[in-house]
């Protein structure tokens, strides 16, 4: 047998959950080992958040260059070198992955390549193609992330692709069918629509982006996509696909009628499943739900007291910043601190056009929670900065508690919603009221003034709307 290598805290998976947990654990004085079977940075850095945002911003610039006539910009023959777009995207990923590698090293964290498998509650075995090594740990943080779900009728092939395949396309497809109008499908579909691809989104429910975003918000994105020639079919049941050398024909059912659509590729984005099978969790008796999610307490501890779980493998929104947040909490819990998860102030963002962002309660959720709430809205169209950016679609909606004006949520649709939501997350975290936001001087002209005015609406004293 091999000689076990001893460590204090062993982290499995080096995505935004695992690498952040490892760094925090090292900062707190623990000897840390992190095991990764793929690439440092996980899904987020390699095939998720980061490359998708690089493609989205390239698509945005390409589209803007061609469609800014109303600002007096006439650009003819705007060309796209998609291999350079891909090279740009890859360079962004490489920089960040390299950066995380340096951070791990700088924090004296031992990085081990290979696949971790539980032996018992203090030992894992790390397997590579040629080796097997046992690690003995005091505490363990599982951060193994998630994988795209594969539908039986849509097995992944050259032309039936998941998000990873879509991010790696070598050419801009002339046409693309997207199955699933969630945030990943909408973001990637939108990016390719900007590059000139004819998009068809087949969504099973009655609205795209229906999970977590109100109709008023998704309607704005829908309008923008349609303006770019995208077709959005809701209540559509994707049934099957036929593939040839040059394309696919997707069959779907809508209102009881069977229809077909042809395209170069079909992108399937119907959700992700947690990576919790085949790693020996049963050897330790770690409890999972029937969806394969690991059950944790408020400190991210599983039913086994020295083993923690974070990120996409536990319940809650499968988002990178949630994984990182939980990573810090798990590391701090191991160090004996009292940190606990509070999901209320976790924002959710869609990098669509325009962007959507939400934090805390929306109106319906507040009602469900039995909170008497007030919604106060202010439009981008009444803001000088939004007008000067020529981006006037959207609004900020502030949700406050009626009795005292406490900020309990916010929804933003509009340019830069992804950055604007941070102020409202802070307001929730710090227990601020609408008055606190209204009293804060926001620079002019900025989109932040929309937030300030929404707070004034809550107080009944907006300046720029009657
Ligand atoms: P992961 O990032 O999935 O990392 C888990 C790591 O564990 C992987 O590297 C894997 O190889 C490794 N691993 C698994 N099993 C083992 C094992 N047995 N042994 C060793 N290593 C193992 N989120 C956002 O917040 N914002 C976005 O804009 C965003 N955009 C996205 C776009 C796309 C196209 C996709 C697919 C996802 C996006 N996400 C986004 C979601 C985000 O990527 C995930 O929520 C995040 O990566 C989850 O982090 P994690 O640390 O839990 O797991």
UniProtKB/TrEMBL annotation:
Q: Which residues form the signal peptide?
A: none
Q: Which cysteines are joined by disulfide bonds?
A: 44-49
For binding NAD(+), which residues are annotated in this chain's numbering?
180-187, 203, 271
Q: What residues make up the catalytic site?
A: 444 (proton acceptor)
Where the record annotates domain Pyridine nucleotide-disulphide oxidoreductase dimerisation, the positions are 346-454
Residue ranges of every copy of the FAD/NAD(P)-binding domain listed in the record = 8-327
The biological processes this protein is annotated with in GO are: 2-oxoglutarate metabolic process
Q: Can you say what this protein is called? A: Dihydrolipoyl dehydrogenase
* Protein species of origin: Peribacillus psychrosaccharolyticus (Bacillus psychrosaccharolyticus)
What are the top taxonomic ranks of the organism? Bacteria, Bacillati, Bacillota, Bacilli, Bacillales
């Amino acid at each position: 047998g091999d000689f076990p290598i001893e460590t204090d805290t062993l982290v499995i998976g080096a995505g935004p959950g695992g690498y952040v947990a490892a760094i925090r654990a090292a900062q707190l004085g623990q000897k840390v080992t992190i095991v990764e079977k793929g690439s440092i940075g996980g899904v987020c850095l390699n095939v998720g958040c980061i490359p998708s945002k690089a493609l989205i911003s390239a698509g945005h610039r390409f589209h803007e260059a061609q469609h800014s006539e109303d600002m007096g910009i006439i650009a003819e023959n705007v060309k796209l070198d998609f291999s350079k777009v891909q090279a740009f995207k890859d360079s962004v990923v490489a920089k960040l992955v390299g950066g995380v590698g340096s951070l791990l090293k700088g924090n004296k964290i031992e990085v081990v390549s290979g696949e971790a498998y539980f032996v018992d509650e203090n030992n894992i075995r790390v397997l590579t193609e040629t080796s097997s090594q046992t690690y003995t740990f005091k505490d363990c943080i599982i951060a193994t992330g998630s994988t795209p779900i594969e539908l039986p009728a849509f097995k992944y092939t050259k032309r039936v692709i998941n998000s990873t395949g879509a991010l790696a396309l070598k050419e801009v497809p002339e046409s693309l069918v997207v199955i699933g109008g969630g945030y990943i499908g909408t973001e990637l579909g939108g990016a390719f629509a900007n590059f000139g691809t004819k998009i068809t989104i087949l969504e099973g429910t009655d609205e795209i982006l229906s999970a977590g975003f109100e109709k008023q918000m998704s309607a704005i994105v829908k309008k923008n996509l349609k303006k770019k020639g995208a077709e959005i079919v809701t209540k559509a049941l994707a049934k099957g696909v036929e593939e040839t050398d040059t394309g696919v024909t997707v069959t779907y059912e809508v209102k009881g009628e069977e229809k077909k659509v042809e395209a170069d590729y079909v992108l399937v984005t119907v959700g992700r499943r947690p990576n919790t099978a085949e790693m020996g969790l049963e050897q330790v008796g770690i409890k999972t739900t029937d969806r394969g999610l690991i059950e944790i307490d408020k400190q991210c501890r599983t039913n086994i007291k020295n083993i923690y779980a974070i990120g996409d493998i536990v319940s809650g929104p499968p988002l990178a910043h949630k994984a990182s947040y939980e990573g810090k909490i798990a590391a701090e819990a191991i160090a004996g601190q009292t940190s606990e998860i509070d999901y209320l102030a976790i924002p959710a963002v869609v990098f669509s056009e325009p962007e959507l962002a939400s934090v805390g309660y929306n109106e319906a959720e507040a009602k469900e929670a039995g909170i008497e709430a007030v919604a106060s809205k202010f439009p981008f169209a009444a803001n000088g900065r939004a007008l000067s950016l020529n981006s006037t679609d959207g609004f900020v909606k502030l949700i406050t508690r009626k009795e005292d004006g406490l900020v309990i949520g916010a929804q933003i649709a509009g340019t830069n919603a992804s950055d604007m939501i941070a102020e409202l997350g802070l307001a929730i975290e710090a227990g601020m009221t609408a008055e606190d936001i209204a009293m804060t001087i926001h620079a002019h002209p900025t989109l932040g003034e929309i937030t300030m005015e929404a707070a004034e609406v809550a107080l009944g004293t907006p300046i720029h709307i009657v």
